[in-house]
Each structure stands twice: as C-alpha cells, then as structure tokens.
Design brief:
This protein is of the alpha+beta class and about 230 residues long. It is built from 8 helices and 9 strands. It comes from Vanessa tameamea (Kamehameha butterfly).
Length: about 230
C-alpha cells in the first residue's frame, strides 16, 4: 500500500499565501517555521493559516531553501541584505551563509559619493537644416574620493590632470574618463553598488562670439552641462 501523501499546510506571510508540507517546515528543527508549527499559540489568520508578519515576496526564497536545502537566486537579484535579514529572523543559519556567498558585492566596502558630470551638445546637419543626428559629449568628469573613483572606474579613469602625490584619503574634482559613453559610466557605478540620488542640468547659453573652430552656431546654441550624484551606503 502506498504511503499517504504528506499533510499540506497553508501559510500567510505578510498577506502573501503559500502552500507547503509539514515535512518541509520541520526540515530545520531549530528554525522559526518549525517552532511555529509546533506552537499552538503561534498567530494564525482568519482562515487558520500560520501567519508571519514578514516580507511575503522574499519568503519564496526561504521556502525554496527549506524545500531543497540550497539557494538559487535570479540573475538580476539585488536584495541580498534584506534576504539575509529575513534568514536571520527565521533562524536559518545555512540560508544566511548562502545569501552572503551569493552576494556579488564585496563585504565592508567603502561608503561615499561620486559625482559624474559632462558638457555636451547635439550634432546637426549642414547649417542646422537637418535633424539632430547624435549626442556629442566632450568629456565625462569624475569628482569624489580618489580611492572610490579608482575602485569604480579602474583603467577607464584618466588622472593626468590631478596626479597622485602620495596623499591619503584625498579628493579630486579633476579626473575624467577615457571614453565618452555616459551610460557605460552609469553601468559601472551600478555594478559597484552606487545609486543615483540627485541630478541637475543647465544650458551654457553660448554666444556667437564664443565659437570655437569647427563648431557651428546651431550646435553651440544647444550646449548644456549635466551632473549626477551617486551614493553607496
């Protein structure tokens, strides 16, 4: 005679409902889910489901860990710190360790801010009669603590206008990038855990008398300067 199927239980985690088995919840005997199952006084919702007042979306990874004994996260997952907090709450030491191992960001990384700015225009056709063809950036400037700037931009950073004289913990406003792709700079900042917190932009209002060789008047009229402030906490 075949064994009876395991008992199916329903959970309510922050308003998100899950279904699992008794054996899954008891897989880690010292965990909070196992303790809740054994405790008749643990909170339940109106339908008798075991209730946890926690993040209902992140609980899917907690439940996966209890089911499989391992952790598999989506490639774009960015909430390692929050998931680690959930693992600690549920008293799942193995999950805490797995989250730390899966976090691509180095531990104890330096906090700080980096400001990226650029002066640009738009390239026009002959005599400004054609449509705008592409954006033109003359140079991408980088300001901030030198160690942070080097950590983020590496070999793409040009330090020729502010060479290192051996000073510790110094700041700069004179670095710039060796390329002119602002989105590449943004990607590098994001990969290192920086988040955009502020930005501003303004027109430079260049006049005809200020024209440089090779710059037509229509292009000069569209000159602008933008800055973006990124912070890593």
């Amino acid at each position: 005679m075949a064994d009876a199927p395991p008992e199916v239980l329903e959970l309510n985690v922050g308003g998100v409902h899950y279904a699992t088995t008794r054996d899954t919840l008891l897989r880690e005997p010292d965990s909070l889910p196992a303790a809740a199952l054994r405790d008749p006084d643990h909170p339940r919702d109106a339908r008798g489901r075991i209730f946890f007042d926690r993040d209902g979306v992140l609980f899917r990874y907690v439940l996966d860990y209890l089911r499989d004994g391992g952790l598999v996260l989506p490639e774009c997952f960015r909430e390692h710190k929050r998931l680690s907090r959930e693992a600690k709450h549920y008293r799942l030491v193995g999950l805490e360790h797995a989250v730390r191992e899966a976090d691509p960001r180095p531990p104890n990384r330096e906090r700080g801010c980096i400001t990226v700015g650029y002066r640009g225009s738009f390239a026009f056709g002959r005599d400004g009669l054609a449509d705008v063809k592409f954006r033109k950036l003359s140079r991408i400037l980088v300001c901030g603590k030198v160690t942070l700037c080097r950590d983020v931009f590496g070999e793409t950073l040009n330090e020729s206008r502010d060479p290192d004289h051996g000073l510790a913990d110094r700041y700069t406003s004179r670095f710039f990038l060796k390329h002119s792709f602002i989105e590449q700079a943004f990607d590098m900042l994001q990969e290192q855990g920086f988040k955009l917190t502020a930005s501003c932009g303004s027109g430079t209002a260049g006049g005809a008398a200020e024209l440089k060789p090779g710059v037509d008047s229509e292009e000069n009229r569209w000159n602008h300067y933008n800055e973006f402030v990124f912070v890593r906490e």
